[in-house]
TrEMBL record:
It comes from Acetobacterium fimetarium. The record marks 9 as: Discriminates between blocked and unblocked aminoacyl-tRNA. GO terms for molecular function: peptidyl-tRNA hydrolase activity. This is Peptidyl-tRNA hydrolase. TRNA binds at residues 14, 64, 66, 112. It comes from the Bacteria. Its EC number is 3.1.1.29. Pfam families: Pept_tRNA_hydro. Gene3D superfamilies: Peptidyl-tRNA hydrolase (3.40.50.1470). The lineage of its organism: Bacteria, Bacillati, Bacillota, Clostridia, Eubacteriales. The keyword Isomerase does not apply. The gene is pth.
Amino acid sequence: MYLIVGLGNIGKEYDGTRHNIGFEVIDYLSAKKGIAVKKKEQNGLTGVYHEFGEKILLAKPTTYMNNSGLCVAGLVNFYQVPPENLLVIYDDIDLATGAVRIRQRGSAGTHNGMRSIIQHLGSQDFPRIRIGTGRPKEGADLVHFVLGRFAKSELPLMENAVTEAARGIDFFVKDGVDLAMNQVNIRKKPEESDV
């Protein structure tokens, strides 16, 4: 069994904000797989689909971002999900807008939702997909930035990031985190100089 968790804040006022990009990936994937993510359990909303011979549980915590660990640890413990089968999707200000990166493990960085999950699980050894939102301007308020919405010019980049993250989830379930990283974490080479 696989547990795929998108992070965000519940409530219409948070729809479309940078901090809710994890929820957007879950919404996109659930629509693509033809399932609803509506079952209330373990401080979250869940939905199940079967693919590649696996049961895949999609989840959106309903605790607000800073307490995401309550939901994630609850689901991991209830369903006995091994750490390598957990995948968390979240926004990252340290990546360029629209960049998508899969990692096998790592620290929470500046992300309070990830900090909560690591604290509740007692480990940072689980895969994650980071989606870049870019950084706020020098001196701008970080909370205001992550709870803000994308500029119109950024929307195509973010739509592409959501579909790319969903593609990464399919690779992750079907072939494992290493292949998913190889498929998704491709950096464009800088243009070669003519000199």
